[in-house]
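Changelog-adjacent note: as of this version, every example in the card shows the full chain rather than a window. The one below runs 144 residues end to end.
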Amino acid sequence: MTLLQQIMWGSLFLGICFVIEVVLLAWCTLSIAHLAERFRHWTRSLRTAGIITVSLVFIVLAHTIQVWLWAGVWVWFDVLTEWNDALYFSLVTYTTLGYGDIVLGPGLRIFAAFAAVAGLLAFGLSTAYLVALMTRVFEGRLPR
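Full-length structure tokens:
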């Protein structure tokens, strides 16, 4: 893959990951608002735990979808032929662990770096979301 192709494809899949993250966090927010009505009879502790649990489920789902997307990219582009290797490489790259036991050739390194950038952005956004949620919890501004 040429440098321009790596940047174009990497940007495309990075953008898809960003959309996935934003859509699932927005859906999470709407779900929390909807569930808050059902949680109103619960004690404050249970309501808080329920809302945090719902948020974590959406966040884990968002990251899982993105890791599988990148694994599919590696298989689709015939970079890695085994799904096990593709999923492993995707997870290690997305989380920026980068063990180095699977290394791509020079024609794919920039493209693979986009998977790491996608993970960094997604984890950053998820963290900001949880901080905002926990701020509301500590300030007692959760939906009642």
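Structural remarks: The chain has a mean pLDDT of 92.
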